[in-house]
């Protein structure tokens, strides 16, 4: 299981994330259809961006998985964040209380 605070990078685009909440499902965290690696890891030379998973990730946004896993995008890129081929959902902001 990936630890909270771990920084990961995509092998096929510029996307980088930091793990906010971990779960076993993050072992299969992908960006652009290719498994993400630690920042100090060596990128695969033959990795290709999957065109169906190329909608991108937005910097500063949190993405969540049904298992409770959550990542924060620290550098945006072309690859869509996914686990097992299922795209992660962008976490919605909590509504502020009314100030009437």
Roughly how many Å is the radius of gyration?
A: 14 Å
Residue share in helix: under 10%
By DSSP (H or I, 4+ residues per run), the number of helices equals 0
Strand order of the largest sheet: 5-1-2-7-6-10
Q: What's the shape?
A: globular
User: Low-confidence parts lasting 5 or more residues at pLDDT below 50?
Assistant: none
Helix-strand topology string: EEEEEEEEEE
Task: Tell me the number of structural domains.
Answer: 1
Estimate the mean pLDDT confidence.
92
Structural class: mainly beta
Report the sheet-strand fraction: 25-35%
The span between the termini is: 46 Å
Main sheet specs: 6 strands, antiparallel
| Number of strand segments | 10
């Amino acid at each position: 299981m990936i630890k909270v605070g771990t920084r990961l990078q995509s092998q096929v685009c510029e996307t980088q994330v930091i793990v906010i909440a971990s779960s076993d499902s993050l072992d299969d965290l992908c960006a652009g259809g290719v498994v993400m690696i630690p920042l100090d890891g060596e990128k695969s030379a033959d990795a290709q961006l999957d065109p169906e998973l190329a909608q991108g990730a937005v910097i500063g946004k949190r993405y969540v998985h049904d298992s409770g896993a959550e990542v924060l995008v620290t550098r945006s890129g072309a690859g869509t964040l996914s686990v097992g081929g299922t795209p992660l959902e962008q976490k919605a902001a909590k509504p502020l209380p009314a100030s009437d």
